[in-house]
Design a protein that fits this description.
- By secondary structure, this protein is of the alpha/beta class.
- The protein folds into two domains: 114 residues, no CATH class; 168 residues, Vaccinia Virus protein VP39 (Rossmann fold, 3-Layer(aba) Sandwich), CATH 3.40.50.
- Helix 5 links the parallel strand 3 and strand 4.
- About 2% of the residues have low confidence.
């Protein structure tokens, strides 16, 4: 059973302004939400299948090994709201473990990918109300009115996407989630942990070049959205672990001087200049619990994969 609440994309003028401000800053940036057009979503799915990209396999391991414990902690009758649902592969492991849930709302910014994944989930669980919501989850989310009476809500936020935000940004996003789930709500969230440089940099710069293609695709997405003329052949993908900041940074490094016209604005990128496209912060469990507390959540339980490379936290809305 499926219904659809497709929200319009963020206003083009707002997104364009955000892009222009980022690209004209001292350290040029692009918002990582631009990764997820249709091709970017497909490339991300390929990344999750790479042996070197441990977060996906680690999170699957946790859900397979601890699924019954997680389901028991969540209880029955909750509305499951997934942030950044993608292909919803891990969600099906959670749904298999849950005895009953009121419904499932996957939220994603990529419309085509969202509809395909929601349709597949609905076909696997014909008695489940699947209600996909196309929206930018970094902004405040309002659920469709038909769910207003449900006050047992679980936000499922897998994939360590919270790592794309620094501590202040993570608190802001988690506050929005706290507002959505309400006083009885819970949060089940994947959080990557710090580890050695080699494993981290390999995970974000794989030998097959899939992550490089994913990173470069952000320029193609900007070209498609606003008629810009980025030449991806003049940029090179880089992924670097910054131990002091506990984050992997992804950049696109300009290999030769390059002028770009974007919505009538001419931009210059000298040789060696980078565009910072993503941060991926790695939080120790105690660090993340402190961040979540600042957003109105208290820690309930934490599970690790068998190699302790990755954590999955259950948080309860704190009164």
């Amino acid at each position: 059973m499926t219904s659809t609440s497709l929200r319009p994309a963020p206003p083009a003028d707002d997104l364009l302004q955000e892009i222009l401000e980022g690209l004209q800053s001292a350290q040029p940036t692009l918002p990582c939400k631009l990764f997820y057009d249709e091709r970017g979503s497909q490339l991300y799915d390929q990344i999750t299948e790479l042996d070197v990209y441990y977060p996906f396999a680690a999170e699957v391991d946790i859900l397979q090994r601890h699924g019954q414990d997680i389901a028991a902690a969540l209880g029955e009758g909750a509305l499951v709201v997934e942030y950044g649902s993608g292909s919803s592969v891990k969600t099906r492991l959670l749904l298999d473990a849950l005895r009953h849930c009121a419904g499932y709302i996957p939220i994603d910014i990529s419309r085509e990918h969202l509809l395909a994944a929601a349709g597949e989930t609905a076909s696997r669980y014909p008695q489940l109300q699947v209600d996909p919501l196309c929206a930018d989850f970094t902004a405040s989310i309002a659920l469709p009115a038909r769910w207003a009476g449900n006050d047992r809500r679980v936000a499922f936020f897998p994939g360590s996407t919270i790592g794309n935000f620094d501590a202040d940004g993570a608190i802001d996003l988690l506050r929005n989630i706290r507002a959505l789930v309400g006083a009885r709500g819970q949060l089940l969230i994947g959080v990557d942990v710090p580890k050695d440089r080699a494993a981290l940099e390999l995970a974000y710069d794989d030998p097959q070049g899939v992550t490089a293609a994913f990173n470069l695709n952000i320029l193609d997405h900007v070209n498609a959205l606003f008629g810009a003329d980025f030449d991806t052949g003049r940029f090179h993908h880089e992924a670097v672990w910054d131990e002091d900041c506990s984050r992997v940074e992804m950049h696109l490094r300009c290999t030769e001087a390059h002028h770009v016209t974007l919505a009538g604005t001419r931009l210059h990128f000298p040789r060696g200049q980078s565009i910072w496209t993503e941060s991926s912060y790695k939080y120790r469990p105690d660090m993340f619990c402190d961040i979540a507390a600042g957003a109105g959540f208290r820690a309930e339980q934490v599970w690790f994969d068998s190699a302790r490379r990755y954590s999955l936290h259950l948080m309860q809305a704190d009164l």
